[in-house]
Amino acid sequence: MDYFFELFLGGMTRGSIYALIALGYTMVYGIIGLINFAHGEIYMIGAFTALIIASVLAVAGMPDFAILALATLAAIVYSAAYGFTIEKIAYRPLRSAPRLSPLISAIGMSIFLQNYVLLAQTSDFMPFPSLIPDFTFMEPYAHIIGSSEIVIFGVTALAMAFLTVLIKFTRIGKAMRATAQDQKMAMLVGININKIISVTFVIGSSLAALGGVLIASYIGQINFYIGFIAGIKAFTGAVLGGIGSIPGAVLGSFILGWTESFATGYISSDYEDVFAFSLLVLILIFRPAGILGRTESKKV
Amino acid sequence: MAGLLEVKQLSMDFGGLRALDRIDLQVNKAEIVALIGPNGAGKSTFFNCLTGIYVPSSGDIYFSRSLNREKERLNGLKPDKITRKGLARTFQNIRLFSQMTVLENVMIGRHCRTKTGIAGAVLQGRSSRLEEKQIVDDSYDILIKVGLENMVNDLAENLPYGAQRRLEIARALATEPALLLLDEPAAGMNPRETTELNELITMIRDQGAAILLIEHDMKLVMNLSDRIYVMDYGKKIAEGNAAEIRHNKLVIRAYLGEEFDA
Amino acid sequence: MPGFSEIKKAFLVSLWFIFLTFPLMVIRINPYENLVSYRWANLFLVGGATFFLSLLSDFYQLKKKETALNNIARPRPKFHLHSRFKRPLAALGGLLIILFPFFFSSYQVNIMTTALIYVVLGLGLNIVVGLAGLLDLGYVAFYAVGAYSYALLNYHFGLGFWTVLPVGAGLGALFGILLGFPVLRLRGDYLAIVTLGFGEIIRLILENWNEFSFGPGGIADIPRPSFFGLQMSLTVSTIYVYFLMIAFTFFTVFVVNRLQNSRIGRAWVALREDEIACQAMGIDKTRTKLTAFALGATWAGMMGVMFAAKTTFINPASFTFLESAIILSIVVLGGMGSIAGVIIAALILILLPEYFRAFADYRMLLFGATMVLMMIFRPQGIFPGHRQIYRFSPERGVEK
Ligand SMILES: Nc1ncnc2c1ncn2[C@@H]1O[C@H](COP(=O)(O)OP(=O)(O)OP(=O)(O)O)[C@@H](O)[C@H]1O
Ligand SMILES: [Mg+2]
Asked: Which of C255, C277, C284 comes nearest B95 by C-beta?
């Protein structure tokens, strides 16, 4: 039972991180119909920026909580800036191009960013300081659940709530929904589509940065390649839940997290990634619309 | 009278929207039948159900390419299977292969009546070379028929609008249909082009194919059609020859709207 | 000459990129000793480079607009090689190809053989991506199937290169059909992801299923291709493999060329343009796609056998996603559907990093950038494909 619970928590932790990344995929897909292949790299860049800023601040002798706050902030700012720039350079010129062109551009961007970080920094794994402190009030429960896990769950829940409110109740959220439904009509009623799409990338990238900082601090090391695998897995979560759907992205990510956790725990840890990829292939074959997605028939 | 095409109680639902509601329709040999109705009535949806692009929610579609043969049920077949059985169509929003030439577009139409496979293509034996030549010749003949022979080598996307519509017809003819479905073939045509279209459709009928036509140009419809079906909000509201339809109360109301009552 | 507004824009762009790249490019950390150093030179490098690139991109866009305007007035004449020169040039090319291995070292010949393998892989993927428009991101999986077929069949049963070559091709095709059948009805972008997932699954299985594939250590001592049982020295064998690859390349060009100008090839191109119209023309979508997919896989399988025989050692690391990405960037750079383009692109992308060592480190960076830039500035590739367009004149019948 203890082992089961441990796996359950592990799966939930993974699921939370996947969810933070998956939201970016799902938002971008919902709005411009593009699988933003470089999204995983944005998450990786977030983690790297946090590491670099944290190191600089640590050398400067800042207190721990300030390091945590500033490094996280820097990660969010930088990931958002990268997301914004990538959309502008690599996707915007291709908005009216054949469907595969922006996808190829995104794949190119992903490879470019991986190697950019590799060349600018290093190909080795870098140790990542555990930024999240062990709370004293958590001590009695430490054998069940760690402080990091609590923080990860909390941040994910907050992010989710923030996003829901943003999309359901704000002006910009309304404009995003309109743009997602019909770009031409949205333009006609005076919505600045370019701005809305940029905002979507910025929000998605910020969430990915949060995920990057949390997981890096939880696992304790990062390298330039972490974005690729995490990206595909988060994408799997998004598709599993129904791409384009925000609750779907969260649900799918948790299911994926638990699947991975239980499969590696009870079957074999050698095939960790195989489980995720198989799940991806199977959903796309049998239910490409995902759990919460709708199958839509194209108008002819 | 035995029909080539018999549609019984055909319905189509999109989520909550009933786009087709228990439609009955029949097309006989060498007949020109029109399907008319206001925008959004469900006419194109009806074509999409017949040609397998949508799978109808309920009802039956029976078709046979000649009267001597037993009719087959088409529901649920893939679009390409249906075309092979002798039911070809054009699209309301022109869907040509825009980066291919006029001739190549028609050659694609010959695909389902020819058979060279990979081995034939690579080895280019006698039969595959002959077949390829035959495809070109047949396609050219069809282009003469629709009057596009002067543009054989142009890219489809460079054609004027009316010519594109005729190329769609040519491409559909290349599949040797027994029943040809035309979705608003005169849309965007000038009066001269429309007259030519009128002649073309009559000629296709005279050569033995039946035609089911969706059209908003009432003059063309009244001129051409042996029989007319009228749809509104997914329902069939009238059926008859031109004179009958012209004076049908329901039809007039459907076209002029509710204020006609008041 | 760039005007003030362009310079101002370029300046702002470069400031933005300095900001963007600052932490990653300038700061260097050593987490083990708590050291931080700053590489200020990089800051100026980024600033200068982006300033210059911004001007260049403005200039390019201006020129593109101008040529677009000019082109309305007069269509650009196509470059045509005068037929008088064609034969001598072909003869010269042939001579160079034949003499090459006798004037260069084994090392050079080996590199050229590798490049030729990529040429053929590019041509194979070109059938799938370029002609049929199916983005296959797991192409390398079929390459792996071919390579492991030879390595394992040879290890367990002692089968030789020429026996396994058709087997590898067949297994490639079989895997192509098995994967293609369920996934080819998916939309283009989902297809890309599924094939990527499949490619990774194959690699991970090869890496972890030690009893079957000998794990990450791979398989060594795979015999080179034989020539009627003749004993060959390493040098001779290298040259022999080179000529085999030349033959393969010609064979592939021949087949792809004939296919793309056939009934099937036309159907592929039409399918790429409009699936629904294609189906309405009576073309069986799934079957036509499957043909292209399986054919591409067949070629990858064949090259896998060749690769194993050439390097005599294989392990799963040769079959990562990046390998698929390299082959894809060859197709993208060359121009989708263009045989000549793919050949030139493969030679550029594979040979350049080999001969200019400075490039080697930046290889993958350049591949990534190539894909983005080509999509934006020249989606038709460096050497756009000329599918044979059917010209028809009633008196003379078809002219090709
Ligand atoms: N794939 C689809 N999904 C959802 N609704 C659809 C779909 N296709 C058609 N509809 C709806 O079905 C109804 C009928 O549409 P249809 O295109 O058949 O009309 P139509 O009679 O051809 O009109 P028009 O004369 O404007 O071409 C419309 O309300 C349309 O919005
Ligand atoms: Mg319609």
From this structure: C277
